[in-house]
Amino acid sequence: MDLIFNQFQTSKSIYAQDKYMTFAKSILHLPIFQSVKNSKKERVTIKIDKFYSYEDVEMDFIPLSVNFDFDVFYYILQKKLKSDKLTFTINMKHFMKFHKVHPSNKKVYIEKLRKSLKNMMKFYLEFRYDSITYKCHLLNNIVEDANDKENTVITFNKEFENFYKHDTDLIFNFKFDKFKEIEGDYARVLYMFYLTNHYADSVRFKISDILDRLQSNFSTKTKTYEYIKKAHEELIKIEFLKSVEPIKEGRELTGYLVEFEKVRKGFLPAVAEKPKSNTDELSICDEELPF
Fold this sequence. Notes:
By secondary structure, this protein is α+β, with helices and mostly antiparallel strands. It has a domain at 2-165. The chain contains 9 helices and 16 strands. The protein has helices at 25-29, 68-80, 92-98, 106-121, 162-165, 176-179, 185-195, 207-214, 221-237; strands at 2-4, 8-10, 20-24, 33-34, 44-51, 54-61, 64-65, 87-91, 124-129, 132-137, 139-145, 148-156, 171-175, 202-206, 241-249, 252-260. The strands form 6 sheets. The chain has a 4-stranded antiparallel β-sheet with strand order 5-6-9-10. A hairpin with a 2-residue loop joins strand 9 and strand 10 (132-137). Helix 7 (185-195) crosses helix 9. The model is unreliable at 265-291 (pLDDT under 50).
């Protein structure tokens, strides 16, 4: 038994390390972190009736990038995960060392960090899980001192805990160093999505669900499919996936059959266990780390 935020009991082990972090499925499965390269980062509203075990999903936010914004989020989640505190200080020197950024770039990164945190303050998500509707915010407050740009004080919104609270065993361990090997935005998004739904050696994914997760803003599906193909090729190259086969009805693409690479024996199990309570077989629990 372990505690999430030092208060919610889970049967899983909780990790908050530089290379491994225990994530709630909802954080990576839902389209929170996206590719924003072709986006003006304007505030958007997303509504999805049903996305696996999450229903009546509604998001109102400025899209968060799967690159820098996610790096920032990983860093602050590491501080929060094992603590019941809501307020923390981000030290710029430590943040840059953690993300291996050269000190000469500090001025630029201070502005990037504060802009990312500001966007997180504007984030809102609600979803129904079983019979209960959960409402989630990320940050409540940010304190910036013009005379002390080394430190930024953040306060999490109490409702942030709902990401984990709705099912304290619906968690898994995210390998940050493996994730950082991935270059393409779509490959990073699909890594998150596939990882949270890896319940067998081979899994079928509907193209409609993949498109919901990607939130692609290309004008044609053909262009989106080209980027998905490139993403699959990269995930195969880094040995996260073994193969991907398109599923078609006639000439229409309806999904993909994704085969996962076997995990090295003695390190991590190849298959995540299926949920014991939820009827949706695509909802998984976590992978146990070897320590």
